[in-house]
Amino acid sequence: MTETLLIELLTEELPPKSLQNLGQSFAQAIAIGLEKNQLIDGKTTYTTYATPRRLSVSINNVKNIQPDMSITRKGPSVANAIKDGNPTPALLGFARSCQVDIDKLSIINDGKQEIYAYEFTQHGQTLESLINEILDNAVKKLPIPKVMRWGSSTHTFVRPVHGLMVIHGKNLIKASTLGLQSRNKTLGHRFLSQGEIIINNADEYAESLKQQGFIISSFDERREFIQSQLNQYAQKLNTTVACDDSLLDEVTALVEYPVILQAKFEEHFLSVPQECLILTMQQNQKYFPLLDKNGKLTNHFLLVSNMKAENPQHIILGNEKVLRARLSDAEFFYKQDCKASLFSRLPKLENVVYHNKIGSQAERVERLIKISTAIAEKLSANIEQTRRAAQLAKADLLTEMVGEFPELQGVMGHYYALNDSEDKTVAQAIEQHYYPRFAGDSLPESDVGIAVALADKLETLIGIWGIGLKPTGDKDPYALRRAALGVMRMLMLKKLNLQEVLEIVFNTFPDNKLSANTINEVSEFMMARLEIMLQSDFSHDEVASVLSVEKQNLNDIPNKLAAVASFKSLPEASALISANKRVRNILKKNPIDDGVVDKSLLQQAEELALYQATEEIAQSITPALSNKDFNAALTALASIKPTVDAFFEQVMVMAEDEKIRNNRLYLLQKLSMQMNAVADISLLINNSDDIASN
After folding, report:
1. What percent of the chain has pLDDT over 70?
2. How distant, in Å, are the alpha carbons of 77, 81, 114, 115 from that of 111?
């Protein structure tokens, strides 16, 4: 007989940011424990429940007892079990451990040799006899960074635990964990529910909590309800909700019976930059700001209460009062910051340590000015604007607002620069020099912004790497991986040489401050990150073929990749890829200096035809490369396929005559240069390779 098994841990309020993970981990660990003990009939299916005060799981098709199992305990080999006709200590000890006489043992073949074994049928154990171990293992495996004790208990958990419920169908299972004995009773909402709730059937758990306890026990159901209600309220006001997934998850983890309420704040607070107000509402108060159709903040917001009241006005007024104090602080910070210009704050950067091995933020700003100016010259960007943006880029670190909300660095610099009547391009570059902040984020809009953003990220990469603080494993405290990806995205957009910009950055640091091999190591690191990034859109072999040829002028890479992908689809591609691999192997085994083909030494018609074909395709490939038409350059190779095939069928490259042999190798050099002008197509996987690998 199989029934639904319900397990609940009733706790004090659990950490909201980890509630969803705790619930999923607990449910999964219980399900795995049951499955390992063969207590589940068929496929494992379970439902996770997680509220601020409980972790629960409901698992279908759970057996009350294990099936009988045939067990074979393996003992010593026959050769080591009997000596001189007598059992050895090894055999005697094995029989004793099995609690049987030697004549009860059998001899089997384990695939290698004859051994003694004890074969028996183990009768299935009950769910009740196994559940404690399953529970204890599940609790131990929960991802809890910091545990606590409560009362006089010696048990530890993320929060005090006050109740355990284990119900199989309609039957209460006697179980214990964390010093608690199981019951068929639980508690509902802390304020809306009265008394204990009796669960008579595991399948009625969620509905009983909802009807009697004012609790939506499913995290996903609660989240969906909150999101739906927020959107409905926003639509009534012709607004949209400013909300990300992390805020929605956190609020879902804070309430058991969500009630959406609408509130507002005084309009004069809207004179403060909306990013400050939104961050205050979301981060400090867990409110949901509302934006108008133009994306501008309104003075209305939504909050999620954990309380249903006949007249919620006092809840609304209380939250408005709390927010008013928060917004007043933000308004005060903003007004105070506006009293001093960004430029006037620069001397104080000398007292802000960037890193003790490479100086203060003031010294860093001097490097940013030099680097961004050099890059701006290459981009033909406005030098004066670039220098000014780099000079002021870090000044907002000293403001009250950024001190309160570090997430607003750059954003506030933009607002304060405009307040100081700085050029709009400069103000924009101050904010956007942090771009891209994450994968998929926008790049700076202007070349001035690009120059300062590149300077900022490259200075971090070279400086931090150069003093030995390289990323290791999953540790990257200075976000060098993210900086590398941002740099690569910008270099692919602009005509800048990677090696040149790395050297510019390295030379802005004092002599002997950084490791001598920093440039090479950073370059390799960045190319590795670029390869990973590109593989999200192109195959591994396509990326490898392009990066093997192009490692400096990264702005050509996207077009080259598209051309290589298109080339692979040509009917001639497979044969040309194989031929190129053959050419590469021949040249690798027979290295020869660069040379010119002597036409008079071309004896066979096939090698003469190949020479003429390479001359002809060069007339197509050379202008195509000049025009960055990589697709045309690769397509031109298709015409040479029959000639290449004929050459390898009829011509012996490694002729006995040294002059003939070298001349043919020069011809293959010439062919290789044409075939790999865009990418190393020998690295591409063709159809025949796919078939062979399968």
Report:
1. 99
2. 12, 18, 8, 10
Contacts of 464 (CB under 8 A, 6+ apart): 355, 478, 480
If you ran DSSP here, which 8-state letter would residue 150 be given?
Answer: -
Least confident piece of the model among 140-149, 251-260, 366-375, 443-452: 140-149
> What whole-number percentage of the chain has pLDDT above 90?
73
CA-based nearest residue to 189, from 149, 227, 156, 222: 222
Question: C-alpha dihedral over 588, 590, 592, 596, to 10 degrees?
Answer: -100
Helices (H), 469-604: 480-493, 498-506, 518-534, 540-547, 557-568, 573-589
- Helix ranges (H only) for 535-604 are 540-547, 557-568, 573-589
Amino acid at 207: E
- Mean per-residue pLDDT, 219-236: 96
Q: 3-class DSSP state for residue 305?
A: strand
Please report, for residues 63, 172, 181, 431, 449, the alpha-carbon distance to residue 175 in angstroms, rounded to integers and kept in the order given.
16, 9, 6, 58, 64
Whole-number Å distance between alpha carbons of 45 and 29: 13
Lowest mean pLDDT among 203-217, 231-245, 544-558: 544-558
Annotated domain spans of the chain: 2-66+126-213, 69-122, 219-337, 343-534, 557-693
Q: Which residues contact 98 (CB under 8 A, 6 or more apart)?
A: 73, 75, 104, 105, 118
Rounded to an integer, what distance in angstroms lies between the CA atom of residue 693 and that of residue 544? 19
3-class state of residue 162 by DSSP:
strand
* The overall pTM is greater than 0.70: yes
Residue 210: predicted pLDDT: 96
The architecture in CATH of the region 2-66+126-213 reads 2-Layer Sandwich (3.30)
3-state helix, strand, coil in the chain (%, to 5): 55, 15, 30
Q: What is the pLDDT of residue 279?
A: 95
> How far is Cα 436 from Cα 483, in angstroms, rounded to an integer?
8
Residue 609 confidence class, pLDDT cut points 50, 70, 90: very high
What lies within 8 Å, CB to CB, of 382 at 6+ separation is: 376, 425, 447, 448
Instruction: Give which of 43, 5, 42, 53 is closest to 27, Cα–Cα.
Output: 5
pLDDT of residue 687: 53
**CATH second-level architecture of 343-534?**
Orthogonal Bundle (1.10)
CA distance readout (Å), 347 to 341, 344, 353, 387, 511: 12, 7, 13, 17, 25
**Total residue length of the chain:** 694
When the pLDDT of each residue in the chain is averaged and rounded to a whole number, the result is 92
Write down the CATH superfamily of domain 557-693.
Isoleucyl-tRNA Synthetase; Domain 1 (1.10.730.10)
